[in-house]
Amino acid sequence: MAELPLDDGTLWYESRGDGRPLVFIHGGWMNGEAWAPQVERFADEYEVITFDVRGHGKTGATAVDRYTIDLFADDLEALLAHLDRDEAPVLCGLSLGSMVVQEFVDRHPDRAAGAILGGAVRSMPPVELPPGTKPFVSPMPALATTLSLSGPATTFRTMLSSIRATTGEEWLTVDPDVRSQAMDAVRQVERREFRKVFGALYRYEPTDLSHVETPTLIVHGEQEAPLVKRQGRRLADEIERGDLLEFDESGHLVNLDRPNSFNHAAETFLERTAT
């Protein structure tokens, strides 16, 4: 992996292959390895770029006290500027990464050649709360207590269980091996970083993306949480060139549950958006 110095830390990224750049942004409390099936599939034809978002993987902790999706999008911009490729990239985001991509295309409606959003979520929780109420119903104090007593892995399991109790589904993934991979990534995250990442997710307020010109493919699993799927449908309707796919036998981590189907859909999308 390579390093990109930041004002308050170091961003670790990896680039494989040559050609049109594909940039993959992982989900919360995971790391760039979450895109391994896509890296293997596309590195022979494209330049495939993955990076570990602040608080995750090799990038790990940075000095700022609070993370935001805006900050993660700033880091994506810094990485693209550092790489300085001639061709516009296709941005692929999973869960938290989908928020980062949404923020980027909101800022730059025509700078990405395309966007692929897996497990696309617009807010956490995935429901609309009355304006100004989030600070008053914040789960942050309870989260901080659970983290201090139990650590990130147990806190993450508790979060999964609470969502499963309302959906009745193993919504994160239908594959025990994928679940194990996700838990291994969570165990690498420090307590303080886990809290900062959660805060970034919780505080993010989605914006209107109807002005976005970027061709966008949204991919959900059939076992995805219903409220998240509803957000994905609304997102596809809002973006002028937005399309939606749903794969059976897959959950939130749809690119890992159904890697071949996800890769085929991505390949078709990339062919359609080639200049």
Automatic annotation (TrEMBL):
Pfam families: Abhydrolase_1. GO terms for molecular function: hydrolase activity. SUPFAM superfamilies: alpha/beta-Hydrolases (SSF53474). Residues 21-259 form the AB hydrolase-1 domain. Keywords: Hydrolase. PANTHER family: AB HYDROLASE-1 DOMAIN-CONTAINING PROTEIN (PTHR43433:SF5), HYDROLASE, ALPHA/BETA FOLD FAMILY PROTEIN (PTHR43433). This is Alpha/beta hydrolase fold protein. It comes from Natronolimnohabitans innermongolicus JCM 12255. The lineage of its organism: Archaea, Methanobacteriati, Methanobacteriota, Stenosarchaea group, Halobacteria.
